[in-house]
Design a protein that fits this description.
The chain has 210 residues and is an alpha+beta fold. It is built from 2 helices and 11 strands; from the N terminus they run H-E-E-E-E-E-E-E-E-E-E-E-H. The strands form 2 sheets. Strands 2, 4, 5, 6, 9, 10 and 11 form a 7-stranded mixed β-sheet that branches. A 4-stranded antiparallel β-sheet has the order 1-3-8-7, with no helix packed on it. A hairpin with a 2-residue loop joins strand 7 and strand 8. The longest helix has 40 residues. The radius of gyration is 54 Å and the shape is rod-shaped.
Length: 210
């Protein structure tokens, strides 16, 4: 069986360079943190019963790059894994035309390009590929710096000091003048009455001494 897989992977080297829309593979790119679970999906748009194979390419796709067989579900619906694959870290399932490859605890060594593939007569069909990058610390998106606009300082004019007491309007002045006139008249009348009383007293004293 391994000889058959080796010949199959050898034939896949050039075919994997051109992805086909007949196999819809998602996501196209994924960046995850170490020890995180990752799921890749592949759907066959032609057949409902063909087995879907999963391959991994640890370097950028090229004519000399090597494909590593990971897993597949055979015609008996039983999972089949590659030679160096640890089943406790990787699992595969397929329902009808949809296959899901899951890495339970991704490690930096799992980084690479993952392809799904179907075997036809006589051609091999590949998905577009998923670029998986596993890092210890997820990159952070830097927030754009915004320039702060200095606030304009507005100078306020000094507030007028309120004057104490009632306002001096024409009515107030008229009342003051009227009061002064009445006071002068009262003083004049009082002075006149005082003079008359004094004169009357003087005449009375003169008549008394005669």
């Amino acid at each position: 069986m391994w000889l058959w897989l080796w010949l199959l992977l050898l034939a896949a080297q050039l075919a994997a360079l051109r992805g086909s829309s007949l196999l819809q593979q998602t996501p196209g790119e994924k960046v995850v943190q170490t020890n995180t679970a990752v799921s890749l999906t592949c759907e066959d748009k032609i057949s409902q019963n063909r087995p879907i194979y999963w391959l991994r390419q640890r370097q950028a796709p090229s004519a000399d790059s090597h494909h590593e067989f990971l897993a597949a579900v055979d015609s008996k619906k039983a999972p089949v894994y590659g030679k160096d694959v640890r089943e406790e870290r990787l699992s595969v399932s397929q329902v009808a035309s949809k296959s899901v490859l899951t890495l339970g605890s991704a490690q930096p060594a799992d980084s690479g390009v993952y392809f799904c593939m179907t075997i036809g007569t006589p051609t091999l069909t590949f998905g577009k590929g998923t670029l998986l990058t596993v890092v210890d610390v997820l990159p952070t998106t830097a927030k754009p710096t915004t320039k702060s606009t200095p606030k304009k300082i507005r100078c306020r004019p000094p507030s007028p000091v309120p004057r104490k007491g009632p306002p001096c309007g024409p009515l107030t002045l008229g009342l003051l003048v009227t009061g002064a006139v009445i006071l002068l008249v009262a003083l004049g009348v009082a002075s006149h009455l005082y003079c008359q009383r004094r004169r009357a007293r003087i005449r009375f004293m003169k008549q008394l001494h005669k």
